């Protein structure tokens, strides 16, 4: 099994443990708990671990089952956020840290 297939299998396994991210939904995650993300024709999961420097957030997205997965890693301190967006009308996903909570929510479409 190739590394790409292994990563995709792990991402979709984690996604099955999470909850789909709807347009108006936002909820706090627990460490290692995965949440499904759908951003236009990209989908994947986000999860975090607690590290000494902050919350290490790992987001993996791919276009369909055959797409090459892309992983975004960021470390968030309280009050910081990360924004994942596409150039289309698919909008964006915001991952924000508020104190000891990490929230993943779908943001509206961004204008250029």
How would you concisely characterize the structure shown here?
13% of the residues lie in helices and 49% in strands.
Mean pLDDT: 78
Note poorly predicted spans: 3-24
Question: What is the overall silhouette?
Answer: globular
The domain tally reads: 1
Radius of gyration: 14 Å
Approximate strand percentage: over 45%
- Tell me how many strands there are: 8
Helix % is: 10-25%
Put simply, the count of helices is 1
Describe the sheet with the most strands.
Answer: 4 strands, antiparallel
The side-by-side strand order for the widest beta sheet comes to 1-8-7-6
| Alpha-beta classification | mainly beta
Please provide the ordered H/E string of secondary-structure elements.
Answer: HEEEEEEEE
Euclidean distance between termini CA atoms: 40 Å
Keywords: Signal
Explained architecture:
This protein is mostly beta strands. It has one domain. 13% of the residues lie in helices and 49% in strands. The protein is built from 1 helix and 8 strands. The chain has one helix spanning 3-17; strands at 26-29, 35-39, 42-51, 54-63, 70-76, 81-85, 92-98, 101-107. Strands 1-8-7-6 form a 4-stranded antiparallel β-sheet, with no helix packed on it. A 4-stranded antiparallel β-sheet has the order 2-3-4-5, with helices on one face. A hairpin with a 6-residue loop joins strand 4 (54-63) and strand 5. 24% of the residues are buried. The model is unreliable at 3-24 (pLDDT under 50).
